[in-house]
Design brief:
Blueprint (H helix, E strand, L loop, with lengths): L2 E5 L12 H7 L4 E3 L8 H10 L3 E6 L19 H18 L3 E3 L11 H21 L3 E4 L15 H11 L4 E6 H7 L3 H8 L8 E6 L15 H10 L5 E4 L23
Parallel strand pairs: 1-2, 1-8, 2-3, 3-4, 4-5, 5-6, 6-7, 7-8
Length: 267
C-alpha cells in the first residue's frame, strides 16, 4: 500500500518547525521530508525523529540563495565548486539522519546562457554527485518542475529527466516525480505513471510528491483523482514513499480526511 511522508516545509506551518515532527506523528505519519535541514544541527533533528518514531526520507541539497530567488545551482555554470561543497554537506546530514535520498535542484540559469553549456554543467555535476552519494549508500534525485510555478527552471518535463538519468547511467541517480508539477506542465498522469513504473524493480522513479491541482492544496481537492492514482501506483508495485508537498487549505490536521483511508498503509 502507498506510504505517505509529511512535508514539514509546507505542512504544519501553524507550528514552529521543530514542533512539526510531533504534530505529524500525532496525525499518523511515520515519515517526513522537507526542503532543507541546515538551519538546525543534525543531532537535533535526529533526536526528534527518534523521539517521535519518524523516518527521514528526503531533503534537498543546498540550493543557493533561496531568499533571493535562487532555486538550485546544480545546472549553473560557474557554481560547480559551491554545488559540490554543498552536496558533501548534504551527505553528512543524510548520514546522521539516516536519510536514503537527497534531491538536488537544477536551478534557473541566467538569461542568455547557452542551454548546451548548462546541460554540460548539469550532467557533470550530477555524475559527480551520484558517485559521492553511491559511496554513502544514498540515492540522488532530480525533479522536473513546471514553468508556471517556477519560471525559467532548467528541468521541466519527465522525458527530459529520464534522458539525463539514462545518459549518466548511475544506478542511484533517480527522478522525483512530482505529480502536481507533472500535471501542470504536461498532464496524462496515469499513462506516464504506467510508463515509468512498468518494471518497479528497474524504475528510475525514486520518489513521488503530490498536491491538489491547481491550488496546491490537499490531494483530495482539485482536478486530479489522486485516489485513483494512488491505487494505480500501488497496483504497479511501487514500494517507495509519496511526499505530501502541499499547502493545507486551513489547518493541516483538519485537512487530513483524505489520509484516513491510507493511514494504516503509512506504517
Amino acid at each position: 500500500m502507498p506510504r505517505f511522508a509529511a512535508n514539514l516545509t509546507m505542512m504544519y506551518t501553524e507550528h514552529v518547525f521543530l514542533d512539526r515532527f510531533a504534530a505529524a506523528a500525532r496525525d499518523g505519519f511515520t515519515a517526513v521530508e522537507y526542503l532543507f535541514p541546515y538551519e538546525h544541527p543534525a543531532a537535533t533533528l535526529a533526536a526528534l525523529l527518534k523521539e517521535h518514531g519518524l523516518r527521514q526520507v528526503l531533503f534537498n541539497s543546498p540550493a543557493g540563495d533561496w531568499k533571493a530567488g535562487e532555486r538550485g545551482i546544480a545546472a549553473l555554470p560557474g557554481r560547480e565548486q559551491e554545488f559540490r561543497d554543498g552536496f558533501l554537506r548534504a551527505i553528512e546530514y543524510a548520514r546522521l539522519l539516516e536519510c536514503p535520498r537527497i534531491h538536488s535542484m537544477a536551478g534557473i540559469p541566467p538569461t542568455g546562457v547557452d542551454r548546451a553549456r548548462v546541460l554540460d554543467v548539469y550532467t557533470a555535476n550530477l555524475a559527480w554527485a551520484a558517485e559521492q552519494a553511491r559511496a554513502a549508500g544514498v540515492e540522488l534525485l532530480i525533479e522536473p518542475i513546471a514553468q508556471r510555478n517556477m519560471p525559467g527552471f532548467f528541468l521541466n518535463r519527465q522525458e527530459e529527466a529520464h534522458a539525463i538519468v539514462a545518459e549518466i547511467g548511475a544506478p542511484n541517480l533517480k527522478i522525483l516525480m512530482d505529480l502536481f508539477h507533472c500535471q501542470v506542465e504536461e498532464g496524462d498522469l496515469a499513462v506516464k505513471i504506467r510508463k515509468y513504473l512498468a518494471d518497479p524493480k528497474q524504475t528510475r522513479v525514486g520518489h513521488f510528491q503530490v498536491a491538489g491541482v491547481p491550488e496546491r492544496h490537499e490531494p483530495s481537492t482539485g482536478e486530479v483523482n489522486f485516489s485513483y492514482l494512488f491505487d494505480l501506483i500501488d497496483e504497479l508495485g511501487y514500494e517507495g514513499w509519496i511526499g505530501c508537498e502541499y499547502i493545507p487549505a486551513a489547518s493541516t490536521s483538519a485537512g487530513l480526511g483524505w489520509f484516513k483511508k491510507w493511514k494504516a498503509a503509512a506504517r
